[in-house]
Write a structure and sequence with these properties.
With 333 residues, this protein is mainly beta. It is built from two helices and 20 strands. Bound molecules: beta-L-arabinofuranose.
Length: 333
């Protein structure tokens, strides 16, 4: 049958399907398009004074082995679709005290400076004979006059060397006090107050009261909404879950999972941008067959996140579209 003999009734559903397909192609924004083939993980979102959204990420190099990661990146956007690559903003070569494990970073703005907080380390993790492992990780802090760096190691050393610490996240409360959350010894979640100059911690590292429910792991992220503090984390490194509290140091009350696991670790951040709450996280891509180890790699993605009237977080599903219609949504909501 030629196209001219197709009846209107036959054509209409075909056109609708085609349009829907084309729209999905145009809107598909997951994983995020950073304008190159770069693979990123552990995205931390921040909106600074210039009104742009900044994402600070770690970097999965092609064919990297066992999370041996070497540098950190920043990307920025005003529509969450078109991103500018500003990286790398710091590498382990810039550090005197670490040569590997450039893992999940976070950033903060305080006293007119931008801070990049990051885990890094040395040594080797022996997964077969853990007693032979020499791997060590600590937390460093770097400073810059610009949100996109270059960042300079602020103290030329980790904030502390013992105990083990990883996956730092900074939250600055309304009174200007900065809190450092991290995954510490025994994979417990801990918090410390940062000194006003952001170059050391003040007082003790505190293991937080998680209200009797504390799946261990990495990737803490804290934010405040309508006076309530949210402590969010990847439960057992997989499902994104959250707690709430009336203080930034807890005690925390467990509230449940808001994004299910798709296998492989997840690491996220939650930030409000132009009146929309957005969840940044990473997805595992298919195996790179060019790599000898056929290593899977990760890349950053984004979804809208919604709250119920009572402040609880609605479940977030992974989508292909992500936040591809962000500008339409901002203009129409
Ligand atoms: O990207 C390296 C590590 O994997 C991060 O620090 C963890 O949170 C996990 O995403």
């Amino acid at each position: 049958m030629s196209i001219s003999t197709l009846s209107r009734a036959t054509l209409k559903p075909l056109l609708v399907t085609t349009m829907a397909f084309l729209c999905a192609q145009v809107l598909a924004q997951n994983p995020l398009d950073f304008g190159s083939s770069i693979k990123t993980a552990d995205p931390s979102g921040h909106v600074w004074q210039d009104g742009r959204m900044y994402l600070y990420t770690s970097h999965d190099q092609e064919c990297q082995a066992d999370f041996w990661m070497k540098d950190w990146y920043a990307f920025s956007s005003t529509d969450l679709v078109n991103w500018t690559d500003h990286g790398p903003i710091l590498t382990v070569d810039d550090l005197s005290w670490a040569d590997n494990y450039a893992w999940a970073p976070d950033a903060a703005y305080k006293n007119g400076k931008y801070y990049l907080i990051f885990p890094a380390g040395t040594g080797h993790k022996d997964r077969v004979n853990p007693e032979r492992s020499t791997k060590w990780m600590g937390i460093g802090i770097a400073v810059s006059d610009s949100p996109t760096g270059p960042f300079k190691d602020a103290i030329g050393a980790p904030l502390w060397t013992e105990p083990y610490a990883n996956d730092p996240s900074l939250f600055i409360d309304d009174d200007g006090q900065a809190y450092l959350y991290f995954h510490g010894k025994n994979a417990d979640y801990q918090v410390a107050k940062m000194a006003d100059d952001m170059r050391s911690v003040e007082g003790e590292l505190m293991k937080m009261d998680m209200g009797g429910y504390e799946p261990k792991m990495e990737g803490p992220w804290v934010f405040k909404r309508q006076g309530l503090y949210y402590f969010t984390m990847p439960e057992n490194n997989r499902e994104l879950a959250y707690y709430t509290a009336t203080s930034p140091t807890g005690p925390w009350q467990y509230k449940g999972v808001f994004m299910q696991s798709e296998g492989g670790n997840n690491h996220h951040s939650i930030v409000e941008y132009q009146g929309q709450w957005v969840l940044f996280y990473h997805r595992w891509l298919s195996r790179n067959t060019q790599c000898a180890n056929r290593q899977k790699q990760r890349h950053s993605a984004a979804e809208y996140l919604y709250f119920n009237e009572d402040g609880t977080i609605q479940e977030v599903k992974r989508t292909e579209e992500g936040v591809g219609d962000f500008m339409n949504k901002v203009l129409n909501d």
